[in-house]
Amino acid sequence: MKNEQEVKKHPRIFEPFALILTVVTSVFGAIIGMQIVTTLGVTPNTAIIGALIAMLIARIPLNIFKKYKSVHRQNLVQTAISSATFGAANSLLIPIGIPYLMGKTELILPMLLGAALAMFVDARILYKLFDSKLFPASGTWAPGVATAQSILAGDKGGKRAGLLGIGTTIGIVGSFLHIPMSAFGVAFIGNIWALTMFGIGLMIRQYSVPWFGFDVNQLYIAHGIMIGAGIVALIQVSMLIFGKQKKSAKSSKSEVAATVEAVDDDSLLTRPINEAKKALGIGFVLYLVIALIIAITGGLLTDMSPGMFIGFLFFAAFAAFVHELIVGIAAMHSGWFPAFAVAFITLLIGMMVGFPPVALALLAGFSAATGPAFADMGYDLKTGHILRGNGQDKEFEIAGRKQQYVTAMIAFGVALLTVIVTYKGYFAQHLVPPIDTVYVSTIKAGASGDVAMKLLMWAIPGAIIQFIGGPNRQLGVLFATGLLILTPYACWAVLSGILIRMIWLKAKGKEAETSMSILAAGFIAGDALFSFFNSVFKIGK
User: Which residues partner with 246 through β-bridges?
Assistant: First the structure.
């Protein structure tokens, strides 16, 4: 079979042409990400675009380009463009837009420095946690599955390519008709329990006003439930880390079936739990150091008492730490991550603690900078995991994952340079991510005791739901994620997709899982392609 010989030695990112291509595609991804997040308020998934670029390059009739027939080189290209897109837009531009809108332009560079450091640490932690008990490679990571299936279809052709083509066509047509096809696709491959709660949350968010006469967002119901679910999720994560390790081996499972339950046997994973513990401990210390850098360069020493200053440092580090874990859990199970909303929750709590406005601005930016890089790297490493044979060759899997990590770090560096060069031009045209307006208006309005009571009241059912579901299903976090996202008709896409999936499996049995996975990849790819080109077209106009 094609490429089987070359997979024994993974391509390296520091090959001259590979490095040049990484830089070029990273600049492209960063610019696209910034342009779209400032005009439409969302960040496009450019991984599929990167895969298509690599496939096209492979068909250029020159020897230097023929190397890109390798699915592993194509994977490095998609990793670069995807990392640069989310890095520039979510991890960098959103944080620095907050002090700009507050009129504190002297805080832009301190915020950019802190956000950049947080972005790199964020990605490093995920790299060290991927394929551990906390974030197993067998997890759903739906956008990563979609990208991998697209690359494999282009490589192998045949029935797989035909099925992917059908799914992509349906995805494009559905997106044109304003059907959220990514949500429909995720329902075909994700954890059914988690996605059902996600769909119910989406439904309540969309229909709470006509059905119940109130907005769950305005009453902070969604935020309170996420706080409660997040606290319990953190306890569950801690129990996974510090609990007794199971030694019994388990029989192998299919890629789709393995997403239903967390991996219990640590010996089957490439990241032992001890490495995960170490990564989390070092990560928290690094976040504490970054919080100190932001606080000092932002001038908070003169705005706070020593006690409040120390409290701010630990609160900011802990909030960033929890934020990335919650965003990562949601991204792994649902394919969507509520980074904006969870950062907003951090901001609300900081306001109730009593931090001054400048500290709140830096806190919101710091929190927003963590999570997106974490989730996106999870998607990219999932793509690589599938392309490398789902971990059958551990040495090759680890080597390939390292090359993806280095590629992502280079892309983040390019994204940082691109933001440094261009952010003044965006701000001069008043192009700022819309979510920053929400953060700033909230800081200026202040938080009342009534908000605190609502958050506390709704945290209780959130905690109960998360506790009942356990760490494998993440019912509370996914329910809250749905409540925090307002995407018209996404609820119907998720719930109908789950129903179709269950009927299909009942009729066809386990052999239907592969076909469903490829179709789901097509739906997600079609949605991503349509959103990307539609966004660019609108910007051009």
Answer: 265
Rounded-to-integer distance, Cα 315 and Cα 51, Å: 40
- Are residues 486 and 183 in contact, defined by beta-carbon separation less than 8 angstroms? no
Segment 195-203 shows an average pLDDT of 89
> Closest Cα to residue 137, out of 436, 478, 361, 384?
384
Q: Which of 508, 476, 433, 489 is nearest to 182 (CA)?
A: 489
Count how many Cα atoms sit within 13 Å of the Cα of residue 342 in the half-sphere of its side chain.
35
CB of 336 closer than 8 Å to CB of 330? yes
Burial of 166 (0-12, 13-18, 19+ CB in 10 A): middle
Give every CB contact of residue 100 below 8 A, 6+ residues apart in sequence.
Answer: 108, 427, 432, 436
Tokens of 524: 């997600």
d(CA 198, CA 495): 9
CA 367 to chain centre: 14
Kind and range of the H or E run holding 281: helix 273-297
**CA-CA distances (angstroms) from residue 476 to 141, 178, 204, 493?**
18, 28, 14, 20
At residue 205, the 3 state secondary structure works out as: helix
Determine the pLDDT at residue 537: 59
Q: What angle (nearest 5°) sits at the alpha carbon of residue 289, between those of residues 286 and 292?
A: 150
Instruction: Find tokens 């520039």 and name the residue.
Output: 88
Listed residue (36, 71, 87, 53) closest to 375, CA to CA: 87
User: Residue 277 corresponds to which tokens in the numbers above?
Assistant: 């513990």
| Summary mean pLDDT of the chain | 83
Distance separating alpha carbons of residues 6 and 211, to the nearest angstrom: 58
DSSP single-letter state for residue 90? I
Q: Which amino acid is at 421?
A: V
**Cβ(92)–Cβ(112) below 8 Å:** yes
264: burial class by Cβ within 10 Å (0-12, 13-18, 19+)?
A: middle
Residue 403, pLDDT score: 95
Assess contact for 147 and 524: CB atoms under 8 A: no
